[in-house]
Amino acid sequence: MDKDHPSTRPASNFASSPVDLPAQRRYGYEGVTAVDRELAAILSTDVAGFSRLTALDEERTIRALNLCHGRSAELVREHGGRVFGQHG
């Protein structure tokens, strides 16, 4: 990787100074500082045997799934996160 790329420098360099000018020109990071960065995590879940469970008792399976999703979303919000979508 390029020695001027911001990710190759120690984290302490991000704390108080903007990205150096050569990196700004080369990588388009104008005005980027440590406070501009944000940590993100993606959580993905799967229900083992969902089709089988649904065939046995659809209403109960959906209630259980909604309960789990609701509790997970609650925990995410308690820790300052957000749920932005679900598929399936």
Number of helical stretches of at least 4 residues: 4
Order of helices and strands: HHHH
Q: Give the overall pLDDT as a whole number.
A: 76
Structural class determined from secondary elements: mainly alpha
Strand tally, please? Answer: 0
Q: Which overall shape is indicated by the principal axes computed on the Cα atoms?
A: elongated
Q: How much beta, percentage-wise?
A: under 5%
Spatial extent as radius of gyration: 22 Å
Report helical residue fraction. 40-55%
The span between the termini is 38 Å
What oligomeric state do these chains adopt?
single chain
pLDDT < 50 runs, ≥5 residues: 12-16
The main pleated sheet reads as:
none
Characterise this structure.
This protein has helices spanning about 10-15, 20-25, 50-55, 60-80. It has four helices and no strands. Helix content is about 45%, strand content about 0%. The longest helix is centred in the C-terminal third of the chain and has 21 residues, at about 60-80. The model is unreliable at about 10-15 (pLDDT under 50). With about 90 residues, the chain is mostly helical.
